[in-house]
Amino acid sequence: MKLKSLIIAALALGQAVLCANSELHGIYKLVARQLPQFADKFEFALVSPTSASSNDSYTISSKAGKDTVIISGTTVNSLARGFYHYVGQCGSVSISWTESTIDTLGSLPKLCGAGHGSLDGAAVVPWRYYFNTVTFGYTTAFYSWADWEHLLDWAAMHGINMPLAWVGYEQVLIDVFEEFGFSQAQIVSFLSGPAFQPWNRFGNIQGSWNGSLPLDWPRRQMQLQQKIVKRMVELGMTPVLPSFTGFVPNAITELYPNATVINSSTWSGFPVIYTNVTFLEPLDPLFTKLQVAVIQRQQTYYGNVTHHYTLDQYNENSPFSGDVGYLKNVSLGTIESLRAADPDAVWVMQGWLFFSDASFWTDERIQAYLSGPEIGQLLILDLFSEGSPQWQRTNSYYGHDWIWCELHDFGGNQGLEGNLPTLTKGFTSAMANSSSLVGVGLTMEGQEGNQIVYDILLDQAWSSSSLNIRRYTKEFFKARYGPMTVPADVIECWHDLVTLVYMNNASSVVNVVPKSIYELAPNINGLLNITGHHPTKAFYDFSSLVDIWKKLVGAVAASPTMLQHPHVHYDLVDITRQVLANQFLDLYVDFMHFYNATNPSASTSSEIIDHARPLLDVLRTADRVLYTDVNFLLGSWIARARALADGNDTIADYYEFEARNQITLWGPTGQINNYASKQWGGLVGSYYLPQWEMFVETLAVQRNVSAFNPATFLHTVLLPFGIQWQWEKWGQTENQTWGVQGDLLPILVELVQTF
Ligand SMILES: *[C@@H]1O[C@H](CO)[C@@H](O)[C@H](O)[C@H]1NC(C)=O
Ligand SMILES: *[C@@H]1O[C@H](CO)[C@@H](O)[C@H](O)[C@H]1NC(C)=O
Ligand SMILES: *[C@@H]1O[C@H](CO)[C@@H](O)[C@H](O)[C@H]1NC(C)=O
Ligand SMILES: *[C@@H]1O[C@H](CO)[C@@H](O)[C@H](O)[C@H]1NC(C)=O
Ligand SMILES: *[C@@H]1O[C@H](CO)[C@@H](O)[C@H](O)[C@H]1NC(C)=O
Ligand SMILES: *[C@@H]1O[C@H](CO)[C@@H](O)[C@H](O)[C@H]1NC(C)=O
Ligand SMILES: *[C@@H]1O[C@H](CO)[C@@H](O)[C@H](O)[C@H]1NC(C)=O
Ligand SMILES: *[C@@H]1O[C@H](CO)[C@@H](O)[C@H](O)[C@H]1NC(C)=O
Ligand SMILES: *[C@@H]1O[C@H](CO)[C@@H](O)[C@H](O)[C@H]1NC(C)=O
Ligand SMILES: *[C@@H]1O[C@H](CO)[C@@H](O)[C@H](O)[C@H]1NC(C)=O
Ligand SMILES: *[C@@H]1O[C@H](CO)[C@@H](O)[C@H](O)[C@H]1NC(C)=O
Ligand SMILES: CC(=O)N[C@H]1CO[C@H](CO)[C@@H](O)[C@@H]1O
């Protein structure tokens, strides 16, 4: 009876039912996780695509007289997207990276939207891609299965159908290297620690400083990946799996003396033992043997679930030669190795290199390097399309398939920033100009805040005209803060905020998420007006942000239960975080003017310290604010890392070191210091505040503008402090809690009085 009515519903749409029920269990399970109380009210059906387009599409309708919602779509992924379209738009609930409010629905919402008879959607591109190789370091390094389940539900409901899936790669490598005669010691000395594996996978670094990778890690990660890949497939996604890249333990020269190997570049000032990674040339027959072994091993662990393989050889690594014949041979050897392992293999490449090393990668060299694979065998991620697109200069990658990607965030930095017009109009105009554009992608280095900037691109993938930003903002916050009715003045605040920070027209100087100067090594100059990938330059009027913030605080003070909504709480903390970071910048400038203008030798040390007090107080306040939300805690990051050691304290201590090192010194002695800095409760108080206190004390002692030497201060004061901090253990000092501390509202109410 049920099936028959489904067939009739589908025939009415002129489509054939393809539905094999086993394919649908993934979507039914998703609904059971997200909306358990109404799970039996949904019926899903797979239908064949229309003749006009093979892109994904879905239709939502309700059964006449019955309390049942019917969603039919061309793929399981489009069903997930359809489900979210319905609950999000008609029920005003949402899922974000941090929370889902879908299960707060009190009743099944009525169909909404045009005509109320049905809702539908159709993608304008075949692929919606997700993840940067380094997101597996900055965001998911310590994710548990529960974290992954949430994130994959988020991804499915946002229509993502091509996620990168790097977890557990090291177990595959270990097995294959052992099969090829490498000893465990030789392999382990090559592998990097849990927080740094992406750069080992890229061949930027090798080995692990301050302890080596316990073999327990890759084994457990492989088991985690088995669940991840299975879930991805169940949710209608095509995972992009790793492959053999060519980076190998340096013992290869002893084991295979005839193999053609070169050392790749040194990277970011790392000591040579941790970089200059050995690279087996793809022209060597051994390369293909290793490729086949890696892919076969991977198929044994995860099944034959994809033909798409991620493979980057020159990400911030220079090729051995710029000869165009050589570059063509390398890519030809590489694709041939992949196709020896999987005859339908498609090579997926992050296109970052063509931008980051543009002086090497001339158009001629790019064309040569991309000429090995045939059209259809290569998929390029135009990694930074919103900031530094490369598709135009390469004539759409000379006809290869490519994806328009948003990078936006480097190292999980947290400033409020975005350019919604570029993500909407910029993408639709690229669609009109490039016939080999096959998708949109999110390729942020780390996921932190600014969620509207990501959702809008994924939604643009389902709209042939550019989304209207004002309308989008309203709908977005109705769902983000729902199912409660969101006060009109709160929506108005968000329109103002979008105009202020998410239409960033200073894109040429601040084209990504900025960071606060308090996350940098304290200095008497050089912190302000930084542009590029970690900008500190103010690109909007700070006082306008304060006005918006005050209105939002007023709204939640008038109606305090609003703060019980996790997204309202998150956003209030995030905006307050930004207000305080901006205030810190202003106070820093004031303090430096005082120090510089009044000959400091005329002031006493205590006068100098008094002048710096408001500056340091901002950090104390920021720490208190951040401590009120579980999503802004250093303790959360460290707890996740330690939990993966499953009770072994020695291993847990190493994971904690890894967790701390990545967000601070990033390297044994600060090689890319503060790159992945965070404004987190506990981190501001235990790491940044002491450094600024030492800075103020140093100035108060010196009392002489020309006495301050930034390099000396860094090496004799900050780095020794930082190195010692790496080895501390969270929770052993007074006030270091793992969970939240304090209530946000009283802090906010008190704080607005001071502005
Ligand atoms: C997907 O939709 C877009 C816009 O309607 C269209 O140009 C494109 O040809 C479609 N792609 C496929 C594979 O059908
Ligand atoms: C950590 O590594 C650095 C750099 O190699 C080294 O100087 C230091 O002694 C190491 N510390 C520990 C505790 O292993
Ligand atoms: C290396 O190449 C030389 C010369 O072609 C050959 O004699 C030797 O057997 C090869 N060694 C190995 C280990 O393949
Ligand atoms: C390549 O790197 C290895 C260490 O990984 C080193 O032993 C070797 O000397 C390097 N080769 C060259 C030519 O620099
Ligand atoms: C995967 O496909 C290969 C052929 O490409 C086949 O040899 C192998 O048995 C398959 N593995 C699994 C686990 O299905
Ligand atoms: C590229 O490979 C071909 C065929 O193996 C070879 O003849 C040619 O010398 C190679 N070119 C370069 C620059 O390595
Ligand atoms: C698309 O092409 C049109 C006309 O060829 C051109 O004016 C426009 O700048 C192009 N847009 C992009 C984003 O390249
Ligand atoms: C303070 O004076 C130092 C030394 O002259 C100068 O480098 C720095 O830019 C000044 N700082 C500010 C904020 O004006
Ligand atoms: C930063 O730039 C702004 C204008 O863009 C300028 O007013 C300010 O003086 C600059 N600050 C420094 C320290 O250079
Ligand atoms: C913890 O792990 C270390 C390193 O792998 C190992 O040597 C030690 O035996 C383990 N301790 C326990 C209690 O299992
Ligand atoms: C812990 O918090 C209390 C209350 O805020 C404060 O008085 C005390 O100084 C803090 N202790 C440390 C070690 O920071
Ligand atoms: C610093 C260093 O030793 N770099 C080496 C990396 O490897 C290449 C060989 O490919 C050498 O030329 C560099 O000197």
From TrEMBL:
<dbReference type="InterPro" id="IPR024733">
    <property type="entry name" value="NAGLU_tim-barrel"/>
</dbReference>
<dbReference type="InterPro" id="IPR029018">
    <property type="entry name" value="Hex-like_dom2"/>
</dbReference>
<dbReference type="InterPro" id="IPR024732">
    <property type="entry name" value="NAGLU_C"/>
</dbReference>
<dbReference type="Pfam" id="PF12972">
    <property type="entry name" value="NAGLU_C"/>
</dbReference>
<dbReference type="GO" id="GO:0016787">
    <property type="term" value="F:hydrolase activity"/>
</dbReference>
<protein>
    <recommendedName>
        <fullName>Alpha-N-acetylglucosaminidase</fullName>
    </recommendedName>
</protein>
<feature type="domain" description="Alpha-N-acetylglucosaminidase C-terminal">
    <location>
        <begin position="472"/>
        <end position="735"/>
    </location>
</feature>
<feature type="domain" description="Alpha-N-acetylglucosaminidase N-terminal">
    <location>
        <begin position="26"/>
        <end position="109"/>
    </location>
</feature>
<dbReference type="InterPro" id="IPR024240">
    <property type="entry name" value="NAGLU_N"/>
</dbReference>
<feature type="domain" description="Alpha-N-acetylglucosaminidase tim-barrel">
    <location>
        <begin position="128"/>
        <end position="463"/>
    </location>
</feature>
<dbReference type="Pfam" id="PF12971">
    <property type="entry name" value="NAGLU_N"/>
</dbReference>
<feature type="signal peptide">
    <location>
        <begin position="1"/>
        <end position="22"/>
    </location>
</feature>
<keyword id="KW-0378">Hydrolase</keyword>
<dbReference type="Pfam" id="PF05089">
    <property type="entry name" value="NAGLU"/>
</dbReference>
<dbReference type="InterPro" id="IPR007781">
    <property type="entry name" value="NAGLU"/>
</dbReference>
<keyword id="KW-0732">Signal</keyword>
